[in-house]
Design a protein that fits this description.
By secondary structure, the chain is mainly alpha-helical. About 55% of the residues lie in helices and about 5% in strands. It has 2 domains: about 170 residues, de novo design (two linked rop proteins) (Up-down Bundle), CATH 1.20.1440; about 130 residues, Glutaredoxin (3-Layer(aba) Sandwich). Belongs to the VKOR family.
Length: about 325
């Protein structure tokens, strides 16, 4: 009597594994999204490179943290992976089979998009930003693993159809990414022509500054303005708003703030382009550039400030230190 060949283990456990990896991705991106919206992105970074990446212009899409889009993608992947497993094959065999067929194609398409997206972000991280973010690397590993399992975790009947879907989804994702990030490293792409220092007077201002300034914040702002320090930012950038709140509204009004987005109020995008600004906020102090939200203590140190330091507001402290 001939023994029936057993189902390969990868076919039996691929859905469970994909669901588990996607769940880990949900937890990671939810953690980072909460940190972004609460202004604590810098405090959860284990390395300076991580901070540079999370506070770069590439970390947001239309003012929304990129981690939120990752959270949604992982959540959808987890639902597609686990949903058919909740259907009892003994009582609803046909329904389970239909659910598996539909979700396998969905998981492959989404897995392809996530792979292309992560690959592009790895390129940006290593080539454009030139920094290392452990969270980003972990997410990229998750995406590669999910894509591999969607391809190898099932006995696909029509590999030609699978290849066609992968090419279409990959191309659409890549074109979308190129469109979104086309002007990230050149914020003044359409402002004023080559060498122009044109200022756009009207425009967006972003959320209002709530905090009141103390005497120390005002004294530091006056000192930074006196030595010609500049802060480059964008009205939609949450980290720029976090920096503004550290100073308070009275002190911030004294700073030499350069709006890099041409849609912002008093925008000077060409200045940002000439300075090579790629992340917001970026401080230029005595010829040195400092990317990301800076504590008032650090700004005081690097600028040679010698006035009072009883600052009212401070950055959240890393929980692990």
């Amino acid at each position: 009597m001939k023994r029936r060949s057993s189902t390969p283990w990868i076919y039996r456990w691929s859905r469970h594994t994909i669901g588990a990896i996607a769940t880990a991705g949900v937890l990671e991106t939810a953690f980072l999204t909460i940190a972004e919206y609460t202004g604590g992105a810098a405090s959860v970074c284990p390395t300076s490179g991580c901070k540079e990446v999370l506070e770069s212009a590439y970390a947001t899409v239309f003012g929304v943290p990129l981690t939120l889009f990752g959270l949604l993608a992982y959540a959808v992947m987890a639902v597609m992976a686990f949903a058919p497993l909740a259907i009892n094959p003994e009582t609803s065999k046909q329904q389970r089979s239909q659910a598996e067929n539909i979700t396998w194609l969905g998981m492959f398409a989404l897995g392809t998009a996530m792979l292309v997206f992560s690959s592009n972000l790895m390129y940006v991280m290593l080539v454009e930003i030139k920094a290392i973010c452990p969270y980003c690397i972990a997410s990229a590993i998750f995406s590669v693993a999910i894509f591999f399992l969607t391809v190898a975790g099932r006995d696909w009947e029509d590999l030609g159809q699978l290849f066609f879907i992968g090419i279409v989804v990959g191309m659409v994702t890549l074109i979308t990414l190129l469109g979104i990030y086309a002007n990230v490293d050149k914020p003044g792409a359409s402002g004023g022509g080559s060498g122009s220092q044109t200022t756009t007077v009207g425009g967006e201002t972003g959320p209002p500054i709530i905090n009141e300034s103390g005497a120390a914040e005002i004294a530091l702002a006056e000192h930074l303005a006196k030595i010609g320090a500049k802060e480059y930012g964008a009205y939609w950038c949450p980290h720029c708003h976090e920096q503004k709140e550290l100073f308070g509204k009275q002190a911030f009004a004294l700073l030499n703030y350069v709006e890099c987005d041409e849609k912002g109020k008093n925008a000077r995008p060409q200045l940002c382009k000439d300075a090579g600004i790629k992340g917001f906020p970026t401080w230029e102090i005595q010829g040195q550039f400092y990317i990301g939200v800076q504590s008032l203590e650090k700004l005081a140190d690097v600028s040679g400030y010698s006035g009072p330091r009883d600052f009212k507001h401070s950055l959240p402290q890393p929980s692990g230190n």
